[in-house]
Amino acid sequence: MGSMIVPMEPIHHVDGNGDPPPPSSEPDSTRPRRRRPKFPNMAAVPLVKKVTAEFLGTFILMFIQVSSIIMDEQHHGVVGLMGIAVSVGLAVMVLVFSIIHISGCHLNPAVSIAMGVFGHLPPAHLVPYIVAQVLGSTAASFAGKAIYHPVNPGITTIPSVGTVEAFAVEFIITFILLFVIIAVATDPHAVKKLIAVAVGATVVMNILIAG
């Protein structure tokens, strides 16, 4: 009937032999390209919220670290160095997943300074970040002292190496940590979804080699 609408069939081009042409090896420009996830944009987050996230994140990290060391000492080494390293590494990984979109999850003055040098932290935010991190770690230490009173000697600093050796070890593990963080944060081709795993694993390795 004249009023019926017949769906149009797709037109297939053929060559001189009646065969369809081979598929083109060129990419389809009409197909949307998958973009790599970028580092979270924190420009719209208020500074107060960023500083609060750094304070809470540093508090949680330091409290877990102090508590795991105390538990290892109180239970006669049942946790062990591996257990302490894994607990701290997992804490870092969870915190990165939780607050990286808010403050960047630095949790360390060295990280904040490095991010500022590479232009990923405004200069006006550097001092508030460091103050929040210092206050968070101090509060975590007092919380551990209050909860596990009297304080177990397992969390005291007892030098077992010389000053030069201690400085060298701290320099190396800090360089490794900052190298991983800066590489993932500044390289546009890095897999941003794995930054938490990369940083957490780096912390585990650093604790295993430096204690």
UniProtKB/TrEMBL annotation:
Stored InterPro entries: Aquaporin-like (IPR023271), Aquaporin_transptr (IPR034294), MIP (IPR000425), MIP_CS (IPR022357)
Cell location: Membrane
Molecular-function GO terms, alphabetical: channel activity
Major subcellular location class: membrane
GO cellular component: membrane
Keyword terms: Membrane, Repeat, Transmembrane, Transmembrane helix, Transport
Protein name according to UniProt: Uncharacterized protein
Originating organism: Aegilops tauschii subsp. strangulata (Goatgrass)
Native organism taxonomy: Eukaryota, Viridiplantae, Streptophyta, Embryophyta, Tracheophyta
